[in-house]
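[09:14] KT: can someone run the structure on this one? pasting the chain below
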Amino acid sequence: MTDQKKILGDERRAFILELLKNSQIPLKGSELAAQTNVSRQVIVGDITLLKARDEPIIATSQGYLYFKQNAGTPSFERTIACRHLPEDTLKELNLLVDHGVLVKDVKIEHAVYGDLTASIMVSNRQEVKQFIDNLQTTNASLLSELTGGIHLHTIAASSTQTLDKAEAALKEAGFLIEY
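[09:31] RB: done, structure tokens below
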């Protein structure tokens, strides 16, 4: 934090919301903290409060996004079941994005916590690389490591044919669980 004046409470949350709505790229919590002269922890709390007000904010590995439904947003979605080793995550995600698919999230069924979902929001190789780099930098574990590699993804694309081709590529790679 600097000597600049802190932006307080509702005014800060309105400012954050405006920044997110106008951004074409994800904004990191640390960037928002620097712009409002508060800690990153305060930003996490602000994002939680904004989400509680039904603002469509998504936390991704690249930062926070305001989810805007528009003409460029993929309109066809499906959930797929996959299984692979942790070291195959890069290959799996690249297969999907190379077929024009947005990988929205990853889900697992945990024995104690039930369904766990984490936002991924990757649609190109650069975003996949950032996601993988973030995993490695933070030494974080994949959710699928809790379930022997079994996990679900919500994928989205501009057509069902695109989704079908992406699924076929996963099947060929041995990652798709057919049910």
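[09:33] KT: thanks! The longest strand covers residues 102-110.
[09:34] RB: yep, looked fine to me
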